[in-house]
């Protein structure tokens, strides 16, 4: 459901001019309540929501209201009432309590004017809810009792576990994660870091330094006349035109129709140019010791048949081969240079009016590069600098006796023991049966590497920093682990940014490091 569907235009309940003695009335489970009109900003239909792990059960999720992150709370759950399906009458009252919050009610009734002297005490009234949440009662024109709800007290009680001092949540941990990743990078200077992808069942890879983003296939591309078969056309990415090429065709493999299951690997080339390479799927982020990487024999390279491949990685004792592409050589041809030049022309850029809301997109310094993954229907992201590797989940994890209860098992990652934790369980989500889309994201906790299983890794994105904000403080644990959110209004997406260093306590890291 889009925002346009969610907002109630010209609703009778908010059409009257606000005054101090006006209240909006609404019902929950057949009982009438009222809220002062002054802090009521809007009344909307219940929008699409991003579910937030580790938040109180009363929080239905977060929505995007005209570029603003809006928490949506279920009053039924706060009152201890059973959930019911939304109906045509279900609404959310958007109330400003220092920060706007939406409260779902069964039905909005009307706006009433109340003289202060007619407000009665709640003492002795019979109600299904805690009377401590009420400031008084009044009677409407029909003589029905209407309870005035204290939303400030309600929120303070429901979200009391939110850490008051969480102002810097989600920042220090991310910096620590990046610092740990930098240390790991220094220690692993004898390794080659790659992004691997599959084309026609074969594994290929590009050095991660040349990979700028990994994005989904767009709904529309623009064809370029008189181009060779491997040039698929142009797409719009971040308000710029990006040439698309088919890796299948470039490698002499059977052509396949481009669809939403494939991914586009955005590579940076010399001169600041970029090109999108269409792959069947993006599989892993790998760190390969240089002694497992062999240069392509010069005889094969010079023959022209394998000139795109610079080296081959021998993994799993030589049972698995990954061809590393020489991106500079691959795209050093006149046809593609023509397309790149066309995409780089000033007239290929979007107009100033289209760019107005995203004026900082062009500055790399104003972007944060994140790996996006899914847990259920929700999207999460972590800074790419904090991700040590991304690998497949093996058919079976080895269970270690006396291992901490939160460790699913261990795997052998190129001779090293890697403890593995289920990210779903860590965030209090339901278990998911193992499948081939799942991946293990490896983070470095000081010198201890630990893997977390996620449902799927979908893309690598550059997110403008002005699209990232603090999430509302909903619980202490949530604010620590999920302290930031990327609100991509134009794409109608919200990506919860996870702080990997907050996933484990120092005690838990010590227990994991003891696993041999």
TrEMBL record:
Domain CheW-like residue range list: 20-160, 191-336, 367-509
GO annotations of cellular component type: cytosol
Chief location bin: cytoplasm
Record flagged with keyword Cytoplasm: yes
InterPro entries assigned: CheW (IPR039315), CheW-like_dom_sf (IPR036061), CheW-lke_dom (IPR002545)
Gene Ontology BP terms: chemotaxis; signal transduction
Gene3D superfamilies: CheA-289, Domain 4, SH3 Domains
Keywords (A to Z) from UniProt: Cytoplasm
SUPFAM superfamilies, alphabetized: CheW-like
Compartments it resides in: Cytoplasm
Keyword match Cytoplasm: yes
Entry-linked Pfam families: CheW (PF01584)
Protein name: Chemotaxis protein CheW
Organism: Neorhizobium lilium
Lineage: Bacteria, Pseudomonadati, Pseudomonadota, Alphaproteobacteria, Hyphomicrobiales
